[in-house]
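so i finally got all the pieces together for this one. its two components total, 571 residues if u count the protein bits. some of the lines might not be protein, just check the labels. i wanna see the whole assembly predicted at once instead of chain by chain like last time, that was a mess tbh
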Amino acid sequence: MGLSVELRDVSVKYGDFLALKNINLYVEAGEGLVLLGPSGSGKSTLLRAVAGLTPVAHGRVYIGGKDVTNLPPDKRRISMLFQDLALFPHLNVFENVAFGLRLKRLPEEEVRRQVMWALELVRLEPQQFMGRKIYQLSGGQQQRVALARALVVQPEVLLLDEPFSHIDLDIKNQLLEELKILHNKLGFTLIYVTHDRFEAVEVGDRVALMRAGEIVQVGKPVDLYKKPRNRFVAEFFGEANIIPASLLGGTREGYAVIRPEDVVIGNSPTYRFKGQVIDITFLWHYLKVEIQSNGHIFKAYVDLETPIAVGDVVEFGFDAKDVYFVAE
Amino acid sequence: MIRRVALAAFASVVLLFYVPFLALGYYISGGGDLKLPSLSMVVTTFLLAAATAVVAIAVAYPAAYYLAKYGSEFEFALLTAPLWVGTLLKAYSLLALFAIVEKFTGIALWGTAAGVLVGMVYEYLPYALLTLYAAVEKLSETPVNAARVLGASRLQAFFRVELPLTMPGVAAAFILVFLFAMGEVVMPAVLGAWKVYTFGSYVWDLYFKARDFFSGSVLSLVLAALSLLATYVVVRTIRSISI
């Protein structure tokens, strides 16, 4: 059914470099949490600290309420998917998947049964694939094998470190979809690391956004999107117009965040601006229009049918209810 | 200029390596009288070479592993330094060492197969070390981590993942050391005091004592063929275990 994961005041050092700074995080049993952030933000390090692959310099790690800080990875009831290929090239598909079961010294019959179960789970036809060498598989198939290998040991917590970043978009979306189904079906706790916000919302019940070894904000995707804690969150988690609050009049300090879909061209109720269209990009179901005004470039998502061209001088604006203020 | 220099190299290889083939042809056509080595000599040679390779790899592997993962350049230099010393010098230095060992423990190594083995392992250890170092060094951390999170202890991860993945390096080290050791002359001569008599010593004696260049040539080819055959069998076996 999955176990909860908790980090209390966790710091990790690489030499003198503080890779994680006093992290506090609670992941509920069975929850899907995404660690999102630019490269170097410490998200993989956090995952490795949970796995026990990186020692923590300070703080405690709990899995299922039990202090596992000093336990080695093999005693933590976790499983993990890695970014670079971690399949064992000297073993075939069957033996790769059977690896964790063999360590438990299960009888051959049971190993076979469970390997079949896992391969079917990740939609690899056992008879067709189990005898294959790893190099005979495509990238997508390899990650399916890796997933089967991780799931066959029936982990309480599944950790994924950018597992699909080297895979074609179509196959990646398919795998993400299947991962979500497996997560619901098997009920393990899932912690997923990515730098891609589209992937993040695909798998995560909650998202923890990281920067420079710290968690900047953690919450439901919609909260991060609509109520970003600061400019970094607003920019990293979706596209945003960020302008000094003073530009909207009044004495307010800090910045105003307006999402491009809330920017209206033509008459708008509260805040009005005038500017020149400098770029238009076709984005399938809408147009992204960039408008220069008051020394800022505003982005607006508009209907495909909107009569607009580069060079046009337009009136645009947004409603007060669509403005969100951040201090920094 | 470069052509003439290259020619010298060619000439030496032709003389030392290809001319013996003529002797072999002469023998096969029925013209030569070959002084064959005894079977026990062949067996001794083979066992010594195999033992040298196995012991050298067993000793070098942990050191190569340590160097590749945690070692400093200084430690690396320390462990490979014996490469700088000639074989004959090593053999004589060991003679001194053997004398000391005998004085204090009563164990006589000079003139025994064990003594020769010690000398040969000493001589070829750096080659095994360098070969294994290259294999361990390019090993990525990820497969080991994958094994660990799947429930393998540090030791299990080594034996089930790292060791099989470095088996090509082990095979390469085996070939290198075994082939060198099959033709070894100096260590058996000095440390074995001609009591441990190997194929290499025999060929040496044919050339420089009996002055039977014909038998020496043919038998050096036979030795090369035997070495290659043995290597083939051993490497096949190693590969079938690992991949």
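Chain B has one domain: 42-242.
Chain B is about 80% helix and 0% strand.
anyway lmk what u think
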